[in-house]
Amino acid sequence: xxxxxxxxxxxxVPAALEPGSTVTDLVEKHFxxxxxxxxxxxxxxxxxxxxxxxxDVTIGLTLAGALTPAGLGGTVISLLEAGFVDxxxxxxxxxxxxxxxxxxxxxxxxxxxxNDVELRKAGIIRIYDVLFSDEVLFKTDTFVRQxxxxxxxxxxxxxADLHRHLGDCLQPLPGAKYSILAxxxxxxxxxxxxxxxxxxxxMNLARLALEGATLHVDPNLDVNETAALVWGAGQNGAxxxxxxxxxxxxxxxxxxxxxxxxxxxxxxxxxIQVTADAxxxxxxxxxxxxxxxxxxxxxxxxxxxxxxxxxxVTIALPILASYALGAVPPRKxxxxxxxxxxxxxxxRDAFLQTAQMATRDS
Length: 362
Description:
Order of helices and strands: HHHEHEHEHEEHEHHEHEHEHHEHEHH
Mean pLDDT: 95
Number of domains: 1
CATH superfamily: Deoxyhypusine synthase
Shape: globular
CATH class: Alpha Beta
Radius of gyration: 22 Å
Strand content: 5-15%
CATH architecture: 3-Layer(aba) Sandwich
Helix content: 40-55%
Low-confidence stretches: none
């Protein structure tokens, strides 16, 4: 690359911040370097490419970290209603705390410098600077058990079915408008949780098992359903909020296809991650999209369509979403929850056909 080519980027301009500046102004004019520039790249990649109608991108959203207690559920709901997110992979904790809002329980802004021993004595729970009564947990647990008791004899289900049932139970409540679960149920957006036992939802499900309930989450259903969603899509892309198991569970759909099932889709086409983790610790949460190429998770020809933003999700997500909502009209809802059986059948047919061909060739 010549010196002229290296200096072909837009000039950095110290433009004045005018009164009444919008999020669009910030993204396009003022976010020019460092992680502000990465956030600008991510916002433009999301709005101009992933949401472009001609590209037919099925978009997954992953949620790790305590995002719903911080009130970010409202931003996620806006993306769902606009058709900008087609399916979700979340920690169970985010979905459990999401229900507090639907049940009209209050979480309060607080001070992270408080004495936690005193909070314990007072029956107050702390998530950094968010405070709420322990009664919120007890009453939410009661709701979860009552809701799951309705389907206690159903046997194995996918986590998408489990979350759909909870969302349906939340629908009649006045606070449902604040709930991701309720919105996803209304819009037929499937929500998966890769570690269903690692949350209070799973804990209450385990209690029901001690009472003789047969209801449980079958991880095989989750792995196959998510692979089917990816296999049946035109192009695939994700917005990864944090890392952890939701990030891997989304990305592993591609290795599941080519490595396990012998169906090579080539890797995901778009990748936007907002994370506070760095790659040099060796953990998945900080792993880069280029590293994911070596696993077959990212299409090597599409690395130009990947962005990692090293930032606090509570700051970056509202900016990313606001820019897209202001730049792109709503998309038609894919309602993938209703498409799962058809897509799973397509995946099964393709796998069996490939397996038979491999047997004949051997």
